[in-house]
Write a structure and sequence with these properties.
2 domains, 4 helices, alpha+beta, three-stranded antiparallel sheet
Length: 192
């Protein structure tokens, strides 16, 4: 029987103490310069069972980073939309509070300020129709307009709503499906 050559093509002839490197089967151990030969390069070597784990960790890390970015994007969209709705409601309330009933104003000699609820609602609707396009929020709806008599004069409260344009936050049920903006303005008598 002839002895086996020290290096054979293929995996069939492996024995304990041999390692596979680049398709060649050779004896494990150290080379002449002291470095290990072929350790852990294939399944069955010392690190062969860990092959592909770095790829799984990398994919998991990429998914995690994308989820954090999506969460940040949604959160900023929600806050900006909420602020824009607040600005719309504030502008509409100021416009309605400035729409004083002039007939009552002149009859009282400038001592009585009154805002009619019907006129206030029409003023708010006109304001929203002209300003919604510039707000950056889609689907804005007027929820309510209230005119209440106060100490300093009539107070106009406006509530507007719009659908929340967030995906991940809504799926996680962290925000309601609709945003709301609310503001109040008062028309006051100021002595000359």
């Amino acid at each position: 029987m002839s002895p086996r050559p020290p290096c054979v093509r293929g995996v069939e002839g492996t024995r304990p103490g041999m390692a596979v490197a680049g398709g060649l089967v050779g004896k494990g151990g150290r080379s002449r310069d002291g470095r290990r030969r072929g350790a852990g390069l294939v399944p069955g070597g010392s690190r062969g069972t860990e092959e592909g784990q770095a790829l799984v960790l990398l994919i998991g890390l990429v998914v995690l980073v994308l989820m954090v970015l999506a969460l940040g994007w949604d959160t900023s969209n929600w806050f900006l939309g909420h602020r824009a709705l607040g600005n719309l409601a504030d502008g509409a309330a100021v416009a309605a509070a400035n729409d004083v009933d002039t007939r009552i104003w002149y009859r009282s000699g400038g001592r009585s300020v009154r805002v009619a609820e019907e006129r206030a609602r029409a003023t708010v609707e006109g304001y929203l129709a002209g300003s919604v396009g510039d707000s950056g929020v889609a689907g804005v709806r007027l929820r309510s307009v209230q005119v209440l008599s106060g100490e300093g004069g009539p107070e106009v409260t406006v509530r507007v709503g719009a659908p929340a344009r967030v995906g991940l936050l809504r799926l996680l049920r962290l925000v309601p499906p609709e945003m709301e903006g609310r503001a109040a303005a008062t028309a006051r008598l100021v002595p000359p």
